[in-house]
Amino acid sequence: VFGKDVTLILILNNLSSDHKTVKVDISASTVLYTRRTVAEILKATTSVDLGSRKGKHIRIKIPYSYYGKYLTTDKRIQVTALCEVMHMHGVKLLVEKTIILEDSNIIIKIPRRVVVNKAVNLEISYANPLPEPVNRCVLLVTLMNQQVKINLARLGPRERSKIYFEFTPRKSGPLQLQVDFSCDKFSHVKGFVTIAVAPS
C-alpha cells in the first residue's frame, strides 16, 4: 500500500546435492509503466550458503522514506535480484518483480436508493497514507459532466477526513462519480463509483 514500507522475500532453493554459495545483488528502482527507470532506491549485496537440497529466505525491505519522493503517478517499483553461483563460471539467475502500490485512501459512500429529481447526500472520505503531513490538498469531484474543485485543510500523518456533497440526479440510469485527490506530496489518487439512479 502506498505510504507503507514494502517487504519482499526472495526464496532461494538448492536443488542439487552439492553445497552452493550464492552471491545476490539486489536492486530496486521506481519505474514508469513503460519500465523506464526513474530512480534507483535500493542497492544491496549479500552472500548465502546453501547446503545440499536446502533453501533460504532473504528478506528485502523498502521503507517509504526510500521510495516516497521518487514515485511517479504510475506507483511502480521494479525489484531485481541477480543470483550468481560462486565457483561455477557463468551460472547466474535473474529474478524480477514489479510492484504496483495500491491506493486505499478514498472511500465514497452513497445511499442505498438514489431517485431522479431527489437530492442525494454523498460522503467522500479521504486520507493521508504518509507518515508525514501533507498540505495544499485539493479534491476534484466529477459528476454529470461537471467538475467541482474543493480546497481542503492540511492533513496530519495518516489522518483521515471527510466531506459531504449534495447533488440532484436529473435522469435515471447509471451515473459515474469520480474523485481525484492531490496534495503537495502526491497527486491524482482516484476513487470512483457508479450510481444506479432509479426513475421517480
UniProtKB/TrEMBL annotation:
GO terms for cellular component: cytoplasm. It comes from the Eukaryota. Keywords: Transferase. Residues 2-88, 106-197 form the Transglutaminase C-terminal domain. GO terms for molecular function: protein-glutamine gamma-glutamyltransferase activity. It holds the Pfam family Transglut_C. Belongs to the transglutaminase superfamily. Transglutaminase family. This is TGM3L glutamyltransferase. It comes from Sula dactylatra (Masked booby). The lineage of its organism: Eukaryota, Metazoa, Chordata, Craniata, Vertebrata. The gene is Tgm6_1.
